[in-house]
């Protein structure tokens, strides 16, 4: 994440990764305030065993794109509505509008939970245990909707 204030959003990715049995690391790496740390983080990610990077940032939100330019790992960008944001649109567009050759998968504004699920799906493409955990997770989602539907009809 680009700053500690992003943690309120990015913790949702960590929580769902933990639930799905995917190991993760979390750090503060700013594209603007700690650019050398960002370069080192991105360039050493694969050697540290990372399979995918989730990068969340608000405002100008250069972190996901800059990280993507420095690694061959998939990068998922989470636009964060921050205190200096223009209703989050600056963050969304900064992450979404990447130039050809430097893709960043982009989730919804403050959508860290979906970023975590997407990262788990990337890992699950090659890890059967994570794939099984995802299948259970999605089955639970279905069951919650079905239960809500039953409750709705019982209360009518």
What does the model show?
- By secondary structure, this protein is mainly alpha-helical.
- Helices cover 51% and strands 9% of the residues.
- It is built from 6 helices and 3 strands; from the N terminus they run ααβαβαβαα.
- A 3-stranded parallel beta sheet has the order 1-2-3, with helices on both faces.
- β2, α4 and β3 form a beta-alpha-beta unit.
- α5 crosses α6.
- The model has no long low-confidence stretch (mean pLDDT 96).
Give the % helix. 40-55%
Number of strands: 3
Mean pLDDT: 96
CA(first)-CA(last) distance: 45 Å
Proportion of beta-strand residues: 5-15%
Number of helices: 6
- Principal-axis shape: globular
Lateral strand order in the biggest sheet: 1-2-3
Question: Helix- and strand-based class?
Answer: mainly alpha
Radius of gyration: 17 Å
Main pleated sheet: 3 strands, parallel
Low-confidence stretches: none
Please provide the ordered H/E string of secondary-structure elements: HHEHEHEHH
Looking at how many chains there are and whether they match, the oligomeric state comes to single chain
